[in-house]
Automatic annotation (TrEMBL):
Name of the molecule in the record: DUF1540 domain-containing protein
Superkingdom to which the source organism belongs: Bacteria
InterPro entries: DUF1540 (IPR011437)
Domain DUF1540: 16-55
Taxonomic source organism: Lutispora thermophila DSM 19022
Amino acid sequence: MMQGRVNNTHNPIPGVKCVVNTCVYHDQHDHCNAQAIEIQPRNAKNTQDTDCATFTPNNM
């Protein structure tokens, strides 16, 4: 599990689309600018079981 907040590189991760506009790593083009991402849990069976552990609210 990721410990603490990761750096915001302000450069999109190639091939990663993120439309969660309440995340600090989201950019206006629906890209993720986190240094790294972590998706959980290990034994997910479908999309609804997954969670982006990197999500950090941007406190709009």
